[in-house]
Amino acid sequence: MLKEFRDFIAKGNVMDLAVGIIIGAAFTAIVSSLVSDLINPIIGLILGGVDFTNMYVVLKGTVPAGSSLSAARDAGAAVFAYGSFITAVINFLIIAFVVFMLVKGVNAIKNAAEKKEPPKPAAPKGPSEIDVLLQIRDALQK
Fold first, then answer.
1. Residue 69 contacts residue 79 (beta carbons within 8 Å)
2. Least confident of 2-16, 47-61, 121-135
3. Is 2-115 in CATH node 1.10.10.10?
4. Helix axis angle, 82-113 relative to 12-33, nearest 10°?
5. What residues does each domain of the chain span?
6. 8-28 as b/e, with b when 16 or more CB fall inside 10 Å?
7. Cα(135)–Cα(142) distance, rounded to whole angstroms?
8. Which pTM was predicted?
C-alpha cells in the first residue's frame, strides 16, 4: 500500500495539481489586493464614496445609528448584510475577469510557441503509369 501511495504521489498530474494549488493561493492574495486596494476605492469614488461593506439592515437587536457592520455584529444584533454580498459579487466578477484575461494570455503565449510550421513542399511528381509503360515499350522496340 505504501508503494501504491508513493506511485500515486509521484504521478505528474498530482504534482501539477499541488503546484496549481500553491500558485492559486498566491494568485488569490494578489487578486484580493487588486480588488480591495485598487478597484474598490475607484468604484467607491465613482459612486460618491459609497462603501458597500457597511450596508446592512438590522433584523433583530439594537445597534447605535451609523455603526459599522462589525460593530453591529459585535453588539450581537442579527443583521442582513447585503453590502457584504454586493462586495462579494463585485469581487467575484473582477476575479473572474482577471482569470479570464490570464487564461487568454497564457493561451496566446501557447499558440505563439506552437507556431505552425510552413507546409513542406510536395515531393516532385514522378511519371505516370502510362509514361512508364510507354518508356518500356520504346525500350523493347529498340
1. yes
2. 2-16
3. no
4. 130
5. 2-115
6. eeeeeeeeeeeeeeeeeeeee
7. 11
8. 0.54
